[in-house]
Amino acid sequence: MEGIGRWLKNNRSLVILTAALIAARVSLIFCTEQLWPSLERFYTGTVAKELADGMAMPLWDYQFSSYEAGWLLAALLCLPFFKLFGFTSFAMGLCGIILYVIQFVLLYRLIERGLNRRVAVFFGLQYLFAQYIFNLNALFVGFNYFNIVFLYALFLTFYRAVFRDNAIHGVVGGPLLSLFFLGLLGGFSTWVCYAFALIAIPCFIHWWIYYRSRDLRTVVSFVAGFVLGGSPLFFRIATFAGGIKTDILAKIIAQDLPGFIAKFWHFIGFEHSYARSVFSDYLEILGTILFALIIFLKRNDLGRLLGAVFGSRAVEEGESGTFLLFCLYPAAFLTVFCLSGFADYRYFAPVYPFVFAVNAIAVDLLLSYRNRFVKGLGAGCLGVLLLFGVADSIIIPLYPVAPNLALFRDEAYSYELLGCLVSWRFKDDPRRVMRVVNRLSDDEKRTDLLRGFGFELAFDGNEELIKEYDVFFANTYRHRPAFLKAYSKGFVMGLGHEYFDGTPLGEYYPEVLRNIPRTGVERYLVKKLDLIDMLDPRYRPKCYIGLGFQFSALEEEYGLDAEFVTHRIGTEYHDDFMRGVALGKTYTYRL
Fold first, then answer.
1. How far apart, in whole angstroms, are the C-alpha atoms of residue 336 and residue 308?
2. 16, 475, 532, 549: least surrounded by Cβ within 10 Å?
3. Would you say 183 and 224 are in contact if contact means Cβ atoms under 8 Å apart?
4. What are phi and psi for residue 233, nearest 5 degrees?
5. pTM
6. What's the CA gap between 76 and 234, in Å, rounded?
């Protein structure tokens, strides 16, 4: 007991911050309406439910895309929680909070040991009072860009255990075996989510500056482990039905120099989208200023390290390089983001902890000055960072407080998503599609799957294949009108979703693809109108047409009237919306 008491006393800052973080994130379960405004949030639960109820496909076929295996890992981790607490968002939220707290503790300890406790505390405060979109990650488990920070925390902790005290140490066996296992973890994590590979940029620069040697066995050991850990990735690329999604590779470097500059300038400007307010923009601007401040204040050290990249090692005895790791990652991330064709801010989830660390380092540097004004500036910056984070969480209008404990009742699975998966991967083989449909345990699941299948088929836009499936389903289900109706409803939804393509709204599977109460449909429509209103005016007409398509698939079933939408939008967009409704009806009754 004396040892525990001593440990708690020596680590009271970490204990207090961790307890506060748990309380703050658990409170989200009681007041959040939904985890994310897209059906995507249900795929972890869908795979877990299939694992529990009996799989309609081999396990590997549940991988949603060839470049994103994280859903499988997420489903396996969440399954015990679903078994204990039911297949609800509450159960997934509990699993998410545990992972979130573990990653926080690992990163806190990494910063405390590599820098100092004050920087770690400043980092922890930003973690606690972060903007809403990062807080929400605590409740979501998908092991894509949402949960990649957990893998970063594991990898960096292992990395710093191996690379420390100006030498390569053995953690699991000798140094070479430890490097092999480090590579194994890195390869596995890259298979889970491609975006993990970004951490290689700061790590390899750090390795080169601080620990390079002429012993090639160190590099060979790491690379061998990485190849073995990432071997499932190479296997799936070769065998994945539907092939690797090559447009992802094309999107990684999609900008020329003017495009890069414009995108970077846009990044530090003002733009509203899902789960973002003006305070998120203020945080980006302040973070950019603090990053520039670090470069100025540490210019001599950075110059010395830059020289070490191209020359001989020029590091001081006992220098850990933790500062370099945390500063290089945001720079690498922002560079790749601005070069890429990705635009949605949800991809920023992995960079937040590193930005918190950079901000904390800058504040610590300011507070280390004797000048009272500079000290006050540092304290003021920290206060503003925390204030903006709290303000962003409070004023987000798209996530109202849910006093009815929505997450306790929210079914965390969607067979519509499974239908999207089957359509995207197996649509060229109707027999394989029907095998999956027929293996499902009841007609409700089959109806949901066909709705999702129709959605993805329409969104894919292969006219010849669409005609083939219209005939195929009309013959197969001529005595099952509910199945045909579900397929048609999903198809019209998918046609409407095409109009959102090229905007942030195109990134999200619509909530109304599921069977939900009328109040949920009305809430979806109001939310969609709010989001369309946030877009550049040149995108709005086509988005209103798309919403009209989706409305046409819903109005008869839910007894909705077009005035529900038209009296909420500008008169200049009425014709666009009604045009979408009319076009949607021509497709709804085509079978």
1. 24
2. 475
3. yes
4. -65, -50
5. 0.86
6. 22
436 Cβ contact list (under 8 Å, min separation 6) = 56, 57, 422, 426, 449
Closest CA to 44 of 11, 88, 12: 88
Which residues lie below 8 Å from residue 335, measured CB to CB, with a gap of 6+? none
Residue with tokens 């910056």: 381
> Which token pair is 480?
């099952």
CA distance 125 to 133: 16
Q: Which of 72, 53, 151, 35 is nearest to 421 (CA)?
A: 72
Long-range contacts of 392-397 (CB under 8 A, 24+ apart): 392/131, 392/132, 392/276, 392/277, 392/279, 392/280, 392/283, 393/130, 393/131, 393/132, 393/135, 395/277, 395/279, 396/132, 396/275, 396/276, 396/277, 397/530
Nearest CA among 78, 70, 71 for reference residue 192: 70
> What distance in Å separates the CA atoms of residue 544 and residue 531, rounded to the nearest whole number?
11
Question: Which residues are bridge partners to 65 per DSSP?
Answer: 68
Is residue 197 within 8 A of residue 189, CB to CB? The reply is no
Whether the CB-CB separation of 490 and 453 falls below 8 Å is answered with yes
pLDDT digits (tens, 9 = 90+) for 299-356: 888 888 887 777 765 566 667 788 889 999 998 888 888 777 666 666 778 888 999 9
- d(CA 121, CA 104) in angstroms, rounded, equals 11
Cα distance from N-terminal residue to C-terminal residue, the chain: 73
Where residue 17 falls among pLDDT bands split at 50, 70, 90? Answer: very high
Whether 13 and 120 have beta carbons less than 8 Å apart is answered as: yes
Residue 141 CA to residue 162 CA, distance in Å, equals 29
- Report how far residue 581's alpha carbon sits from residue 549's, in angstroms, rounded to the nearest whole number: 5
For CA atoms 58, 64, 67, 68, the dihedral sign is negative
- 536-548, pLDDT tens digit by residue? 788 889 999 999 9
Exposed, middle or buried: residue 85 (CB in 10 Å: 0-12, 13-18, 19+)? middle
Q: What is the DSSP letter of 274?
A: T
Q: Which of 262, 267, 306 is nearest to 287 (CA)?
A: 267
Cα–Cα distance measured from residue 351 to residue 145, given in angstroms and rounded to the nearest whole number: 10
